[in-house]
Each structure stands twice: as structure tokens, then as C-alpha cells.
Amino acid sequence: MIAASRKLLTASAAILVLMAAAGAGGLPGGVTERPVDAPVIAQGDTTIEVAWRLLAKLNYRTGEKAKELADLEGKMVKVPGFTVPLEDWAASATEFLLVPYVGACIHTPPPPPNQLVYIEMDEGKRAKMDGWNPVWVEGVLKIEMTESVYGHVGFTIVGQKVYPYES
Questions:
Q1: What's the CATH class of domain 31-164?
Q2: Numbered ranges of CATH 2.40.50.870 in the chain
Q3: Is-above-0.90 flag for pTM?
């Protein structure tokens, strides 16, 4: 029993060391690119692809935002990221946070508000929660500072669609 416990602790410690060395939990197997590296802005048919570098142009202390960011208010956007369920162990959810890198959450020092997006799925829709694999979230963007039990968040998206990230 003691030997098995030591093996488990050793394996757990090794995993934590690897995660720390990779930075913020590292990338899951098969993922070669972080969503944070996506284009700053690319416009398709009706959905505008937005990267975290553009979202970072919100000054969460003063509320000032770059014109290119302000122009996205109320538009259909597509943002890559990782899901953070707001319910413990949720397999699917109607509301969650979208973050730019795996491992970012409200239990550790969270990213700044301009790097957090509160997602509220459109009525009757649910999103699969898989925090280790990146996703695309499509929906209508609102630029608003929100304070809640989850912390300060700079953006809200009414989610229409959530699907696996592919560059």
C-alpha cells in the first residue's frame, strides 16, 4: 500500500514538473499551435475571426478600447481559446469562460479582464467542456466589464456555436 502510494505521488509530481516546464499546463498532445497565435482579425462571410492580441487592446482600467476593437461591438465573431466551466466537473455547459491558454482559470492568478471572455450560450444550446483542447466560439460580442464571483471579465459573447479549433 505504501509503495503504491509513493508511485502515485512520484507520478503526480513528475506530471506537475512537466506541466510547469511547458508553461501554464502546456499543450495537449496533438496541439501544435496556441490559439493566442491566431490572426489578429480576419473577416469571412459574416463572422469576424478575432485573436487575443486584439482583445488585449481593451484597457480594462480606463475602459478605453482601440477603434478596431470598438468596431466589433455587437458583431458576430469567432474567437479561439480554451473553455473553463463555471460548474465543477461539467461535461457541457450553458455558460463558461473562454481563456487564451490552457490552465488559465479563476483558481490560480487569472488572466487580466481583457483576456477573459464570458460565454453565455444562446437559448437552448450547450457547449461541450474540454479544457485541454482548444475550441472556436462563435457568437455576438459585447465589450463590457463585468464583475462577478468569477472575477473581472472584459467581454461577453452570446454563443451560437462551439467546435474544435483547427488553424
A1: mainly beta
A2: 31-164
A3: no
